[in-house]
Specification:
- The protein contains seven helices and four strands; from the N terminus they run ααβααβαβααβ.
- By secondary structure, the protein is α+β, with helices and mostly antiparallel strands.
- The chain has a four-stranded antiparallel sheet.
- The longest helix has 18 residues.
- The protein is globular, with a radius of gyration of 17 Å.
- The two termini are 22 Å apart.
- Bound molecules: flavin mononucleotide.
- The site of flavin mononucleotide (FMN) has 11 residues, from β3.
- The site of flavin mononucleotide has 11 residues, from β3.
Length: 185
């Protein structure tokens, strides 16, 4: 079967390199609609979306993540950071930070589902995107509250996920599918 939604799902990749060109207001509006159209447990909408196109704020978060990783003991993470030139958001012009109601037991599901709505919407508009969990380190460190305030997380909300979005300047193959991921009965 073929349709545009299935095609967007099939074509989406994690984009790890972006043009500097900013998103248009029309693109931003469409992503905001896709984000807030997401289903959520009990329709409690436990998420908040901060659309950040402020390069200085994005770089501050990125630098903090780099500092924390390079000062830590996770050698794999250090190697990934070095291989990626210390880039966490890959020069994306916009990063969407999803923060979640800390009281909600469903917030991880709600945030993940919203992230997928966003990346598929981005794909359907010809944009690249990548979901970023690693930047959570910046919000767990001693400057976490400062970053949450800079990104205007609502009171009682904590970082869940981020999505870097923009025009891709790299390509990537589809990920290989693991074995035994589906059972048909
Ligand atoms: C919850 C979550 C967190 C992720 N965090 C990161 C991240 O911090 N940095 C990154 O480069 N990619 C991150 N990714 C992207 C995955 O590495 C990617 O989805 C996976 O390798 C499959 O590749 P594909 O998205 O191109 O199919 C994350 C994906 C998910 C779903």
């Amino acid at each position: 079967m073929e349709n545009q939604v299935l095609q967007a799902i099939a074509d989406r990749r994690s984009t790890r390199g972006f043009e500097a060109a900013p998103l248009t207001q029309e693109q931003l509006d469409a992503l905001m609609s896709a984000a807030t159209a997401s289903p959520s447990a009990l329709n409690l909408q436990s998420w908040h979306f901060t659309f950040c196109s402020d390069a200085a704020v994005i770089k501050d978060v990125e630098d903090e993540v780099g500092r924390i990783i390079m000062a830590g003991t996770d050698e794999g993470a250090k190697q990934r950071m070095t291989a990626r030139q210390m880039k966490v958001f890959y020069n994306a012009p916009t990063v969407i930070f999803i923060s979640s109601d800390a009281q909600s037991k469903w917030s991880a599901f709600d945030a993940g589902i919203a992230a997928e709505n966003i990346v598929l919407a981005a794909q359907s508009m010809g944009l690249g995107s990548v979901i970023i969990g690693m930047c959570g380190l910046a919000f767990q460190g001693s400057n976490g509250d400062k970053f949450a305030a800079a990104l205007r997380f609502p009171a009682g909300y904590r970082f869940s996920l981020a999505i870097a979005v923009g025009t891709a300047n790299v390509t990537k193959e589809a990920h290989p599918i693991g074995e035994n991921k589906i059972t048909v009965m």
